């Protein structure tokens, strides 16, 4: 009886260790995904800023170029 109890305790401890390792791997994977998403977000924010700047320059260039040229 004691032998079976020891085996059960050993199996329980091993199962607990396996679960902890599984969770640690999941945490690692989620952190890597988070870091990848942060990089992707930074790139997209930079792209949006560049496109907004291009639109601003086009609006200013088109408006000033046609109106400014005829007035000077």
Automatic annotation (TrEMBL):
SUPFAM superfamilies, per the entry: Leucine zipper domain
Keywords, alphabetical: Coiled coil
InterPro entries in the record: bZIP, bZIP_sf
Coiled-coil zones: 6-61
Superkingdom, taxonomy of origin: Eukaryota
CDD domains: bZIP
GO MF term (any one): DNA-binding transcription factor activity
Stretches assigned to the BZIP domain: 1-58
Protein name per its UniProtKB record: BZIP domain-containing protein
